[in-house]
Amino acid sequence: MGSFASLVDGFGTALTPVNLMYAVIGVLLGTTIGVLPGIGAAMAVALLLPITYGLDPTGAFIMFAGIYYGSMFGGSTTSILLNTPGETASVVTAIEGNPMAKRGRGSQALAAAAIGHFVGGMIGTLLLVLLAPTVAKLAVGIGAPDFFAIMLLAFISVTSVLGKSRIRGFASLLIGLAIGLIGLDEMTGRQRLTFGSLHLSDGIDVVVVAVALFAVGESLWVAAHLRRIQAEPIPVGRPWLGRADVKRSWRPWLRGPFIGFPFGAIPAGGAEIPTFLSYVTERRLSKNKDEWGKGAIEGVAGPEATASASASGTLTSMLTLGLPTTAVAAVMLAAFQQYGIQPGPLLFERESGLVWALIASLFIALVLLLVLNLPLAPVWAKLLRIPRPYLYAGILFFASVGAYAVSGDVVDLVVLFVIGLIGLAMRRYGLPVLPAVIGVILGPSAEQQLRRALQISDGNVSGLVNTPMSVVIYVAIALLLAWPLVRRLFRRPSAQDREKIDV
To answer: Which residue stretches, if any, does this entry annotate as coiled coil (predicted)?
Structure first.
């Protein structure tokens, strides 16, 4: 009861007019910034840091939390409507959300995403209240072999279920891993695949790659085929979810938080891995196999609920351990230090009022975001009425602005369009885009965790499987790889197969 009593006191602080105003400002800024590809919540919070020096710490962090949650809402909007992820957490949403929009179901996709964020955020924040100390203790015990096994599971899972063949999925993954190698080796400091360019020494930003492969590649593909097809505006469709949509979405909404929260809390970091795993899970469990890749609403509902819950898990690690697992958490950690506050095990004792007001403001921000985004779904979907030549020209413009905003360097624009051409070629030859993005996001981290694990074991490969968690994950990977062969061996022959045998 101690936690809930403290939470009630936190609501008393967060619902004061001034702090409520900060929450509204935060969610509005976050939603707007999330819509712009390349900007991101981390940059928004970083830009706001200097102007919050004179603010009360509680109000400043309530605003930051609103920006964090709001940017995840906003990122799904362009991901669904324009195939342009505003945040890496919304990359997976584009796979099913954009085909839904093209079929005239953009409003339903946006509504499913908004409700998914609300449900996932509510459950995730409730788990933050209940399980913060326990999850923090578990996170401390996870080592390099476990992290590498988790990332390998993400690689295998997504490449196994996307595209027309596993070979194409792994080919796409290799492209992403190669892009992820560009820059300085963190352990040796040597340049890799930079071609002598200092601009590439820091590597290529993940958002630039995601926007290039999704938005630029899609725009170039459409431009190459506009003369062959009639360019008609995409219909908006009905503005609300029907009974069938809710029936298909409510289970993914409830499953997503329990995938997203633990991954957000561990230092594997962020919403990328759990959203990929949520997508794979929902695709495996779905009864509507034929719709996947063409606009399955489960592929929007599950990952969006997962992404929102992972944000709560991220805050769990930051508040209880002082361990930032995402860029936003790192900036918020800097903000805590700016006020002379050190997150960690003693934070809940020393700054109890601030922490519980911050947690209470998360519930408030989620309600504000649902109220703001659900009625606006049909309005956002009307973007699709713009004729396709103008629509995709606008996408290229905003993608270019977003890429330039990442570092303010013209080289990023060149990289954007070079990778965009790679995305065009991938579409031409039927390679799925998502494994490449996974390779860029997780490849560098997986490499570091692999090398770390081998260093700890003096180069002995057994060091990768010396923990119970890693063993369980490798067993899951083996089952995942072997399942198609096992299913083929034990599958009953169909009527057509029997006719062929008889002949």
So the answer is: none
3 state SS of 286: coil
Could you tell me the mean pLDDT of each successive run of 10 residues in the chain, 503 residues long?
Answer: 74 87 86 64 62 76 82 77 70 83 81 87 86 62 78 74 69 86 78 77 75 78 66 55 83 88 67 80 82 83 87 79 66 74 73 84 88 72 67 76 71 85 86 78 80 82 81 83 71 54 47
Q: Which residues contact 490 (CB under 8 A, 6 or more apart)?
A: none
Distances (CA, A) of 61 to 10, 11, 341: 13, 14, 12
The answer to whether the Cα torsion of 122, 127, 132, 136 is positive or negative is: negative
To the question of pTM greater than 0.70 for the whole model, the response is: no
Say how far apart CA 8 and CA 16 lie, in whole Å.
13
96 contacts 54 by C-beta, under 8 angstroms: no
Q: 267 near 443, Cβ under 8 Å?
A: no
Distance CA 121, CA 309 (A): 5
Q: How many CB atoms lie within 10 A of CB 293?
A: 16
Phi-psi group of 183: left, alpha or beta (phi > 0 → left; psi -120 to 50 → alpha; rest → beta)? left
Three-state secondary structure string covering 65-93: HHHHHHHHHHHHHHHHHHCCCCCHHHCCH
User: Burial level of 480, CB count in 10 A (0-12/13-18/19+)?
Assistant: middle
